[in-house]
TrEMBL record:
Principal location: membrane
InterPro entries assigned: Cyt_c-like_dom, Cyt_c-like_dom_sf, Cytochrome_c-type_DH, Membr-bd_ADH_cyt_c
Gene3D superfamilies the UniProt entry points to: Cytochrome c-like domain
Species: Diaphorobacter aerolatus
Binding site for heme c 2: 205, 208-209
Compartments reported by the entry: Cell membrane
Protein name: Cytochrome c
Pfam short name (any one): Cytochrome_CBB3
UniProt GO MF annotations: electron transfer activity; heme binding; iron ion binding; oxidoreductase activity, acting on CH-OH group of donors
Keywords: Cell membrane, Heme, Iron, Membrane, Metal-binding, Repeat, Signal
Length: 440
């Protein structure tokens, strides 16, 4: 009996040493609060640059609660481990980052540790922001520190055990956080390298577009940009695995980034709309660089294809009798806006996506198309794209399913299985404004 007890004792002591050692190793000191930087510490040029960089990094998209004041935090982000709330990043000295030195800010952005020395959850994309260079990091700090300070305490994040032990994130970082800049690839042109810097850094494109493993770490290699899911939306692949019926070209990507719309593919709705809002403000040179980088994940030999001929071919023959319910629903509810063959019509309602070219109708998942019909597009990515009404109160689950599968059949695609049930589920789970973003 005594030998058994001794054995248990040895195991316990070892455990305490290991756990103690882990906490000692992962311990991060608090960084002393500083006085707020005096007015005039930053040049106007630096502040203006920081503003553009903040738009590129979508800081306000995540750090603003629905209906809340910009950057005061409180957006609930659903993660597999519970709800994480974003923080106040205005320079308020009590509830925001007003007492953060540049050193503290830089540590949070590149190492995921806050001023108090607490590890931050990777719902905050510091795994991407660690790539941001010193000059840009300083400009971001200059911009944030010169914004209005707003006193607002967002709800505290309280995950369940063991996820509430923030030191555990150190182990996650050990596996998934690759600190430092994107290594320059000298075999590629400077434009490509600039695009990589933007996409892998502030743009954090892979946070949404790459699938994740069971520990919520982004998959790389062949899985990079291979598509994922987010808050009910299916995030399309940016690789040749895309379901887009016509291959993307660099010009298509530029138009999509600049205007939130590519006549040959469709528009940016859902979680991509606020991303475009930030991208559309960037310089043409940077958007072309981003396009060049994204293009390198696609098959470079693909022929762009003739959009008009492609659409004409899809409508060459009607697949059903003209009084078929699907056609009637389309004529009644959609044709007034989605009828022309070119995709773009200059009208007060904005652009007109040509649905025979829309990635979402060719996707394996019906979610994006169904969500757009249920909830409409209330906030356009840019003023030129326009909005679309919600049909949740006009069309039943069965009608939306018939409409979508009729279009699929007309375009020569298999029907989506169990569609009425899936539309019903999305109708219930994804009320507009329930919450807009969740962890990836
Ligand atoms: C995808 C959503 C998302 C984006 C985009 C984002 N953040 Fe955050 N950020 C978070 C979350 C969530 C937290 C809190 C994490 C936690 O509590 O562990 C956070 C925390 C922070 C913190 C630590 C604050 C504190 O009080 O501990 C700073 C600083 C910060 N973010 C700055 C930024 C900046 C600057 C940008 C834009 C370049 C940005 N964030 C973009 C989600 C985001
Ligand atoms: C917050 C999540 C999120 C982030 C961050 C994000 N995307 Fe997206 N992206 C989406 C979603 C969701 C869609 C589908 C939108 C739709 O169909 O209306 C999309 C669509 C796209 C498309 C259109 C694909 C197609 O075939 O229709 C491109 C191109 C794209 N994103 C590129 C990017 C790039 C480049 C970045 C980084 C600068 C980026 N995205 C960052 C979520 C995101
Ligand atoms: C009042 C005009 C209008 C009507 C009616 C309308 N739409 Fe739209 N639709 C738009 C506009 C404008 C966009 C692009 C908006 C944007 O992205 O900001 C759009 C976008 C879409 C998209 C593409 C979304 C994406 O992410 O690429 C789909 C799919 C769609 N509509 C389907 C339908 C269907 C099906 C109907 C009929 C039930 C319908 N629309 C009725 C104006 C309309």
């Amino acid at each position: 009996m005594r030998t058994l007890k001794k054995l248990v004792l040895i195991v316990l002591v070892l455990l305490i040493i290991v756990i103690g050692g882990f906490f000692a190793l992962t311990h991060q000191p608090a960084i002393e609060p500083t006085a707020q930087p005096p007015a005039g510490s930053f040049s106007q040029q630096q502040i203006d640059k920081g503003k553009l960089l903040a738009a590129m990094g979508d800081c306000a998209v995540c750090h603003t609660a629905p209906g809340g004041v910009k950057n005061t935090g409180g957006l609930p982000m659903a993660s597999p481990f519970g709800t994480i709330y974003t923080t106040n990043i205005t320079p308020d000295i009590d509830t925001g980052i007003g007492r953060w030195s540049y050193e503290a800010f830089e540590r949070a952005m590149r190492h995921g540790v806050n001023r108090d020395g607490k590890y931050l959850y990777p719902a905050f994309p510091y795994t991407a922001f660690t790539r941001v260079n010193d000059e840009d990091m300083k400009s971001l700090y200059a911009f944030l520190m010169t914004q209005p300070a707003v006193k607002h305490q967002p709800p505290e994040t309280a995950l369940k055990f063991p996820f509430n032990i923030r030191a555990g994130i150190a182990a996650w970082n050990w596996v998934y956080l690759k600190k430092g800049p994107v290594p320059e690839d000298t075999t590629k042109p400077p434009e490509w390298n600039r695009g990589a810097y933007l996409a892998e850094g502030l743009g954090h494109c892979s946070a949404c577009h790459s699938p994740r493993d069971q520990f919520a770490g982004e998959l790389g290699g062949a899985q990079k940009f291979a598509g994922s899911t987010l808050d009910g939306w299916s995030v399309p692949a940016l690789t040749s695995k895309t379901s887009a019926p016509l291959p993307w070209t660099a010009e298509d990507l530029y138009a999509y980034f600049k205007h939130g719309f590519s006549p040959r593919h469709g528009s940016a709705a859902g979680p991509m709309a606020p991303v475009i809002h930030g991208l559309s403000q960037q310089s043409d040179a940077d958007l072309n660089a981003l396009a060049s980088y994204v293009m390198s994940f696609k098959d470079g030999n693909a022929k762009p294809g003739d959009a008009e001929a492609f659409v004409a071919d899809k409508f060459k023959e009607s697949k059903f009798a003209l009084d078929h319910e699907g056609y009637r629903l389309f004529e009644g509810a959609c044709a007034s806006c989605h009828s022309d063959a070119t995709g773009v019509k200059d009208s007060m309602f904005g652009v007109r996506p040509q649905l025979a070219l829309n990635t979402n109708l060719y996707s394996d998942s019906p979610n994006n198309a169904a969500l757009v019909i249920l909830n409409g597009i209330q906030t356009a990515a840019t003023p030129t794209t326009g909005t679309m009404p919600a049909f949740r109160h006009n069309l039943s689950d069965a009608q939306i399913a018939t409409l979508l599968n009729t279009m699929r059949a007309q375009f020569g695609l298999q029907p989506w299985a169990d569609l009425p049930a899936q539309v019903g589920k999305l109708r219930k789970d994804k009320e507009p404004g329930a919450h807009r973003l969740s962890a990836h």
